[in-house]
Amino acid sequence: MTSLQGKVALVTGGSRGAGRGIALELAKAGAYVYITGRNAGTPQEAQARTLEGVLAEIRRSGGDGAVIRCDHTNDSETEAAIRQISAEQGRLDILINNVWGGNNLPIWNNPFWELPTEHWDNMFNSGVRAQLMTNYYAIPLMRSEGAGKGKLIVHTTFWDEYKYTGNFYYDLSKNALVRMAYGLSLELAVDGIAVIPLSPGWMRTEVVLDDFHTDEEHWQEVTELQTTESTAYVGRAVAALAADPEVISMTGTPQKVGELARKYGFTDIDGRQVPAFRIS
């Protein structure tokens, strides 16, 4: 599939988790993919948990891209990353705001007054603000070719209508990303740039697999993981959105990966169409 041939994409936080899955699927669809993050690795390293490891996977699958080491909590590094893309490509068609710092503390479902306030820095400074500043520097480049170009900004987040996630800071930060996307969708409508908050289900990220002492080859042996989805699933949702010529009709509206699978007809890597995640 090369429906994104000639497109330039940026996936922030691309060394692991959802970012890795999205970067791989965009590259398989033909996009040239920049991946950013703090864990760059070296060209000799083929580890999946480094940016260089993901780039090696991209190239093994026939795609292409580049690595930019970037700490998105440092505005000057974010600006430099966008400046590099501008100098090398002169354009940016797809921006995936995926960088997230919220996993440095356990996300307990304790009452707000019992939670460590460090969650604010982890989720808002390293997550919400990092995505905001990536938008700040990237949007002028995305707008530079004029309106009506079918470009796309995606914020990976969590959304289940107005149900409470159970953790005050997580709920607040994820809803902040939904509102950020909504506000930008209004401001960028005239430019033809769609902005979509995208909610995956329970993904088998490296952290989840480690927590259950398993891997992608053996997860089906773990009862608790039966309803999970691979990180490729959200990647396929992003690739489908980016290839949709009518994606602007969805701008500003939260989307769930499981619902997009039905809309566009894609499946997860095991052939399942995993339903959209719901809070019970």
Outline of this structure?
This protein has 280 residues and is α/β, with parallel strands linked by helices.
- Strand content is 5-15%
Main β sheet profile: 7 strands, parallel
How much helix, percentage-wise, in residues? Answer: 25-40%
CATH superfamily annotation: NAD(P)-binding Rossmann-like Domain
Overall, the morphology is: globular
Radius of gyration based on Cα positions:
18 Å
CATH domain fold name: Rossmann fold
Order of helices and strands: EHEHEHEHEHEHHEH
Question: Structural class, judged by helices and strands?
Answer: alpha/beta
Instruction: Tell me which CATH architecture applies here.
Output: 3-Layer(aba) Sandwich
List keywords for this structure.
280 residues; Rossmann fold; seven-stranded parallel beta sheet; 8 helices; 40% helix; globular
Descriptive overview:
With 280 residues, the chain is of the alpha/beta class. The protein is built from eight helices and seven strands. The longest helix has 26 residues, at 118-143. The model has no long low-confidence stretch (mean pLDDT 92).
List the helices and strands and how they pair.
Layout: E1 8-12, H1 17-28, E2 32-37, H2 51-60, E3 64-69, H3 75-89, E4 94-97, H4 118-143, E5 151-156, H5 168-188, E6 193-199, H6 206-211, H7 231-243, E7 255-256, H8 257-264
Parallel strand pairs: 1-2, 1-4, 2-3, 4-5, 5-6, 6-7
